[in-house]
Amino acid sequence: MGLDFVRIVEDNQSLVFSLAVRFLRDRECAAELAQDVFLQLYRQLHRIETPAHATWWLRRSVCHRCIDEARKRKLRPRIDIAGIPEPKAETRQGDFMLNARLRKFVEMLPDQARMVVLLRYQEDLDPSEIAEMLSIPVSTVKSRLHRSLAFLRGKLQRQEVYP
Amino acid sequence: MSIEDQLRSALRREPAPPDFAASVLAGTRRIASPFWRRPVTLALAASLLLAALIPPAISEHRRRQRAEEAEAQLVTALTIAETQLERVSATIQRNTRRIP
Q1: Per residue in A106-131, pLDDT tens?
Q2: Which of A18, A95, A153 sits opposite B14 (nearest CB)?
Q3: pTM score
Q4: How far apart are CA A32 and CA A35, in angstroms?
Q5: Domain range spanning residue B89?
Q6: Domain presence at residue B2
Q7: Which residue of A12, A16, A22, A38 is the best one to mutate when testing the B interface, meaning the one whose CB has the most B CBs within 10 A?
Q8: Does residue B3 belong to any structural domain of this protein?
Q9: What phi and psi values does residue A89 have, to the nearest 5 degrees?
Q10: How far is A23 from chain B (nearest CA, A)?
């Protein structure tokens, strides 16, 4: 086998934690889930062939665990898309503020769409890879991406942040 | 910048908490040495096993002791009875010989 588990943790902790925290919107819960995912990998290390395989396994596992967790805890009702006040955009404060607002808007997306957006723009996966990872058709991935981008664009335009 | 590039910038991976890797590795140690393999657990299990086995063993020992005592008493009783029977038998034979 010869895989260095410590190295795998060091190389992938940011990937796993970022996906979990952006999906679950709860740092404590995300850290706990991310740890569980790594421990699950540790138990199955004999099946992992290469570091790239470990990364693929971790990404897939954290996606499914996050979706299951959201279903279990019914996180969606915590944020009402229609009712949430949009952050005020007094001026174009630069990338930092824009990025923060964009992340807030991504948090408002429905679970499946949010995961697709995270995999596309955080993990830089193409639609076919996302489809395989989430076990859904490529056309569904594309339509979710399209609708999510329209939603985000609309939110930003309403704030006159984005032309 | 397009919204897609903006999203890439906004959704850059963020670092895990500083103690994250250490917590994961502590978890792996717990997996490598599960609670049922730890010395304290083994000692406790051994104590419980002994506590469960010793009282029946003592009880069995006492039962055997009583059985051996009863056997010894029976042997003594039979020996006495045999002696008495031999005496009675000898007396009968003596008296039978006197009668012509």
Answers
A1: 999 999 999 999 999 999 999 999 99
A2: A18
A3: 0.67
A4: 5
A5: 8-98
A6: no
A7: A38
A8: no
A9: -115, 90
A10: 11
